[in-house]
Design a protein that fits this description.
1% of the residues are buried. The chain is mainly alpha-helical.
Length: 119
């Protein structure tokens, strides 16, 4: 039987509600299979870039709520969590830019030197 996972305020131990349910082997298997099924779609660089930038938009759009809930569950404080969220969004954007640029692929195009062309 799976157990509930509770959202708990570390400042006072108060439960704020069920955050999740502990996964059993069948749930993990289902999640892994679903992730595997996305592999073909995410092979496309433009799709990966769009996904990462959508994550950035969602993080930014919901930042106040994410920070509020994060503080309630971690007691790290709004300033720290504001920085952590900005850092995470920045990393997702950096990954998107790197994928978009394609430099990590190591592709080199060696154009012929026209001065060396035969007459």
């Amino acid at each position: 039987m799976t157990e509930p996972v509770w959202s708990v305020d570390p400042r006072n131990g108060e439960r704020h509600g069920q955050a999740a349910t502990e996964a059993d082997a069948a749930a993990v298997d289902k999640a892994v299979r679903a992730a595997h099924e996305t592999r073909a779609a995410l092979a496309d660089r433009a799709t990966r870039v769009a996904l990462l930038r959508a994550v950035v938009r969602e993080l930014n759009a919901d930042s106040d709520e994410i920070i509020r809930l994060g503080d309630r569950e971690t007691a790290l404080g709004v300033p720290r969590l504001t920085g952590e969220l900005a850092r995470a969004a920045g990393q997702f954007e950096a990954f998107a830019a790197e994928i978009e640029d394609g430099g990590y692929l190591g592709i080199a195009i060696d154009h012929a030197d026209p001065s060396l062309a035969p007459p």
